[in-house]
Specification:
Radius of gyration: 25 Å
Number of strands: 3
Structural class: alpha+beta
Helix content: 25-40%
């Protein structure tokens, strides 16, 4: 007759250490990174003008490097360059912090400008 093991001896042995390269990996889908990028763009844009759509993003990830394209609608008049720079900076910051990917490029495309003030009243003039 063979003795029956209770399994208690298995707990006394140290677990084998598996090298990091053999453990597997985590893959974050492109659409998840795109959602993070669009939310970051929304944070950077701030208050949307009436009738404006939310920022959207598309992402291509290759070897843990994300290339991002963001579409935004802005109010006008504004400093378009500064607003786009703010969007780029925020997207890079959030994607790197949340998913640990490098973001060497963020293309910001302004889809539409929404006129906020009536023409002629921007500089205090009236017709």
């Amino acid at each position: 007759m063979t003795p029956v093991s209770t399994g208690a001896g298995a707990l006394d042995r140290p677990l084998p250490v598996v090298p990091p390269g053999e453990r597997g990996g985590t893959r974050i889908a492109d659409r998840v990174v795109a959602k993070i990028a669009s939310q970051a763009a929304r944070e950077a844009v701030g208050t949307l003008p009436p009738g404006a759509g939310r920022p959207s993003a598309s992402v291509v990830v290759h070897h843990e490097v994300a290339h991002v394209r963001v579409n935004v609608e802005l109010d006008y008049p504004c400093d378009i360059g500064a607003r786009c720079r703010s969007v780029r900076h925020r997207v890079v910051e959030r994607v790197e912090a949340l998913v640990g990917m490098q973001v060497p490029e963020v293309v910001v495309q302004v889809e539409r400008l929404h006129l906020v003030a009536a023409l002629g009243t921007v500089q205090g003039r009236t017709r």
